[in-house]
Amino acid sequence: MPPGTSPPPAPAEAEAEAWTLENAAAGAAAGFTTVAALHPLDVVRTRFQVSGGRGWSEVPPYRNTSHAVYTIARSEVSLFTNPIWLVKTRLQLQTPKHHTSGYSGFSDALRTILKEEGFLALYRGIGPGLLLNSIDFAALGAGSKVAAILLTYPYQVIRARLQQRPGSDGTPKYSNSWHVVKETANIYASYCVGT
């Protein structure tokens, strides 16, 4: 062994070192998860402690805990999530036709936006998030989902019926889309008449 070098660790020492690193990583992940999950409630508790929930300070008044969580979520959550939504939207909208160099992923998009457009670019489009509350977003999302289902479900049925496996003789049950529509209407009509 050359002078000035230490011998390789014994197998037991290497295993103990790996175990220590695993514990450190698990502890760090658990700590982060706990802080991330409980931070909103910690903010509510601290604000109630300062103001008593009655607006006797610079902190906004809250009627109760759920009102405090709602008010804080409406403004502060948008501040944290808007950059994520902006990057996600940019990734979804990138096309080779409109951009000479696309983003290679989330971190590349974030770095590029910060470098080329600055920090404030991460908060483009935050206005609607502050004006509309989570119930408004849920209602809009549910409404758009229902509309999408109502508009696309018939197409999905037609497509699925055309894609089904042919019968044992090798011939498909339906010859084209119009055939599917007619047969489905006939089945529905016979069901309605039969009941």
From TrEMBL:
It holds the Pfam family Mito_carr. Solcar repeats lie at residues 18-150. GO terms for cellular component: membrane. One of its GO terms (biological process) is nucleotide transport. InterPro entries: MCP_dom_sf (IPR023395), MCP_transmembrane (IPR018108), SLC25A32-like (IPR044712). Its main location: membrane. It is a multi-pass membrane protein. Belongs to the mitochondrial carrier (TC 2.A.29) family. This is Folate transporter 1, chloroplastic.
